[in-house]
């Protein structure tokens, strides 16, 4: 069954209500989040109701810290894609703004979860908060469940096999430190940047390695540098490559972006949405200048081909 996406909790049709819902900020939909969703799935099966996921959009951090640095691990489209793979049937994107931010924890449950979504079950994580000033916690959710007639489950913290705590914060730290393999270990899949391919200076094409340029936008900025990658195209092809993430200091500072050279590929994909997975960090971003401070094209080309050779070895292609 295809995932249905709802952008409000008000005036839902009767058939859109009554799910077992996993509630939380599911940026990343990492392995800890998936434990919460699994609890909701068990309740959905037991109660014979649909499995839903409810999350705030925009993320509460965006609302409370406007103008702050980008931090997202996943786009809404990516969240929906992962949830579909987890057999979720509904995604409720609860529009977060001043009105919702000022609801008490009890009012949040009563107005949104009960009157709005008509929840039969709510699954939360051990560290969930809700309501004005984040006064609601798992114990409060359990009390409100008894009051309003829905069951509640609370997932414990999840750790990786090596004992590392799984959290969105930990994953962001791994990416900032240039450890995409560790981030993937906590996410349960590689971290990937999805976006529309924009036209750049086309310098790479002139030098023999055409790149697809995608702005980072709301994504967290991983450590600037060069990565071995795999890119998923609109038609489903999943192709190896090498990418630079950064501000392009050699040829002119730009907003942080991903520039991926997809190996053995030279098709026009401008305007298309691609998704590029970061598989391994190769080296930091550098500026290629000669002794007189001029753009050193030969040095850059040599290094890019060395990067490509290393990426091919890592990716096994």
Structure notes:
There is one protein chain. This protein is α/β, with parallel strands linked by helices and 317 residues long. The chain is built from ten helices and twelve strands. It has helices spanning 31-47, 60-64, 76-85, 98-101, 105-116, 138-148, 168-176, 180-187, 203-207, 297-315; strands at 4-6, 20-23, 51-57, 90-95, 121-125, 151-155, 192-196, 212-215, 225-232, 238-246, 257-262, 273-284. Strands 1-4-3-2-5-6 form a six-stranded parallel β-sheet, sandwiched between helices. A six-stranded antiparallel β-sheet has the order 7-12-9-10-11-8. Strand 9 (225-232) and strand 10 (238-246) form a beta hairpin. Helix 5 (105-116) packs across helix 6 and helix 7 runs antiparallel to helix 8. The longest helix is centred in the last third of the chain and has 19 residues, at 297-315. The protein is elongated. It starts with a strand and ends with a helix. The model has no long low-confidence stretch (mean pLDDT 94).
């Amino acid at each position: 069954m295809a995932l249905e996406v709802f952008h409000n909790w008000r005036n839902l049709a009767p058939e859109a209500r009554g799910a077992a819902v996993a509630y939380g900020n599911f940026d990343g939909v990492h392995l800890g989040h998936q434990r919460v969703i699994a609890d909701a799935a068990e309740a959905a099966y037991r109660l014979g109701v649909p499995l839903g996921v409810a999350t705030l959009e925009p993320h509460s951090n965006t609302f409370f810290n406007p103008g702050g640095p980008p931090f997202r691990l996943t786009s809404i489209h990516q969240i929906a894609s992962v949830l579909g793979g987890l057999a979720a049937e509904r995604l409720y994107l609860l529009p977060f703004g001043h009105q919702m931010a000022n609801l008490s924890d009890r009012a949040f449950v009563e107005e949104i979860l009960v009157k709005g979504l008509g929840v039969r079950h709510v699954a939360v994580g051990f560290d969930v908060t809700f309501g004005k000033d984040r006064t609601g916690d798992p114990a409060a959710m359990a009390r409100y469940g008894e009051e309003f007639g829905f069951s509640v489950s609370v997932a414990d913290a999840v750790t990786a096999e090596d004992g590392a705590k799984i959290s969105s914060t930990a994953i962001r730290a791994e990416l900032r430190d240039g450890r995409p393999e560790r981030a993937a270990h906590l996410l349960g899949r590689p971290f990937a940047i999805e976006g529309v391919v924009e036209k750049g200076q086309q310098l790479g094409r002139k030098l023999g390695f055409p790149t697809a340029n995608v702005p980072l936008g709301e994504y967290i900025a991983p450590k600037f540098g060069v990565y071995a990658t795999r890119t998923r195209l609109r038609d489903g092809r999943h192709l190896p490559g090498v990418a630079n993430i950064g501000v392009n200091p050699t040829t002119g500072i730009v907003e942080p972006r991903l520039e991926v050279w997809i190996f053995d590929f030279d098709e026009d994909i401008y305007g298309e949405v691609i998704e590029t997975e970061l598989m391994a960090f190769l080296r930091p971003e550098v500026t290629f200048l000669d002794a007189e401070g001029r753009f050193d094209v030969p040095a850059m080309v040599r290094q890019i081909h060395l990067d490509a050779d290393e990426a091919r070895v890592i990716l096994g292609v």
